[in-house]
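Request from the bench team (R.T.):
"We need a structural guess for the complex before ordering more zinc ion. Sequence and SMILES attached. Just send the tokens back."

Command: build protein-zinc ion structure.
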Amino acid sequence: MSADAQAREELMRLGASGVPAILVDRELVVGFDRDRLRALLHDAIVACEHCGAQLRLPAAKGTLRVTCPKCGGRFTCRT
Ligand SMILES: [Zn+2]
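Reply to R.T.: structure attached below.
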């Protein structure tokens, strides 16, 4: 499986289909322009699996357990 396909699958697993989301370490950018992403490289932005809210997380921390501040839903993501 190619890296691109893996990144796409991960994005789908994150429930981010159709929602702006960034996987910074894979340079997969959806819904943001790359120049803006560069300014955000120290953070990872993920979409809540439950409500789609965009959450900013510290990047490169490995797998994080996230509690969404908007809906209270919990999910895990890799940064
Ligand atoms: Zn949420």
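Two things stood out. The chain has one domain: 3-78. The chain has a mean pLDDT of 74.
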